[in-house]
Amino acid sequence: MDGASRGLNVALVERDDFASGTSSRSTKLIHGGIRYLAQAFQTKLPPNTLLDIIWNLRIPFPGTEGYEYLKILNADLYERKYMIDSAGFMTTPLPIMVPMYRWWEVPFLFIAGKMYDFVAGRRRSVPPSHYISAAEVFYQFPEIKEQNHEGCKLKGALVFNEGQQNDTRMNVHIALTAAQEGATVANHTEVLDLLSTGTRGQSDYKIVGAKVRDVFTGETYEIKAKQVISACGVFSDAVRRMADPEATDIMVAGPGSHLVMPDYTSPDKMGFLWFTEDGRVLYLLP
C-alpha cells in the first residue's frame, strides 16, 4: 500500500486468502508491550518480593540491554499511535487491569503504569493508566479470587490502556487500499519459484521476479520486479530455499496459545493481565 501510494508499480500475491494464517490468529492487540518496560528496569519478572525489585533494579542507560528494550518500546508505542490515529474506525482503546495482592505491588505497578504513559508521551492516543479499588475489580470480574496463593487479599488493580482491532479486517482493508492506489493484488496465488539472473553465489546473482500459479485455475505467470520482498512469516525459509537450495533454516517458531472462553469470563470492555510464576504473560480479552 505504501509503495503503490508513492507511485511504484507493486504486485502482491498470497497463497491462501488474505489474513487466513497467522495474521488472523493474534491477540487482536495493538500494544507497546508493558513487559518491555519491566525488562528495561529489572531482569526478574514477576518480582516475588520487594527485595527482588530493589536487588534486580537497573537503570537503562544508553548502551545497556535495558536501553535497547526502551527503544523497542518507544517504537512500538509510536506504531500504536499511528494505527489508532489512521484506522480509528477499526482500532479502539481497550483498558486492561493487572490485579494487585501484595501491599508493595500497589505503588510498584502504579509507578510502572505512569512510566509507561511517560514513555508514550504525546504518542499515547489512549487514556492514561490509573488505579481501581478491589470493589471495582470484583464488579468487573466477579470470579476473581479474593486471595492469592500466599493468602494476601486483593488490594485493587492497575488499569492501563492498549489498542484493540479486528486484525483480519485490517489486512483486507490494507489490500483493498493498495489495489485502489494501483497495486496488483491477488490472493489464492502461489509462488512456485523465484526468477533470477547471474550465477548463484556470485556477486552478479540477483532475484528479478517470481513464477506464480493461480490455485483455482492452475495457470502460471511470471512477475518481473526490481525488488522482491518475502513477507511469508513461518514459511520464509521455504521461500529462501527457492533462491538458495542450500540455505539453512533461520526461522524459530514462537509457541503461543489462544483459547476461546465463554463470554461471561470477561466484561465487554475490559481485559485482564497476570503473570505466571515462570514469568509468562497471560491475557484475558473481550
From TrEMBL:
Domain of life (superkingdom): Eukaryota
Alphabetical UniProt keywords: FAD, Flavoprotein, Oxidoreductase
Enzyme class name: oxidoreductase
Stored InterPro entries: FAD-dep_OxRdtase, FAD/NAD-bd_sf, G3P_DH_FAD-dep
GO molecular-function terms, A-Z: glycerol-3-phosphate dehydrogenase (quinone) activity
Gene Ontology, cellular component aspect: mitochondrion
GO BP: glycerol-3-phosphate metabolic process
Keyword NADP attached: no
EC number per UniProt: 1.1.5.3
FAD dependent oxidoreductase domain residues: 4-286
SUPFAM superfamilies attached to this UniProt entry: FAD/NAD(P)-binding domain
Name of a matching Pfam family: DAO
Cofactor(s) in the UniProt record: FAD
Family: Belongs to the FAD-dependent glycerol-3-phosphate dehydrogenase family.
Name of the protein this chain belongs to: glycerol-3-phosphate dehydrogenase
Organism annotation: Strombidinopsis acuminata
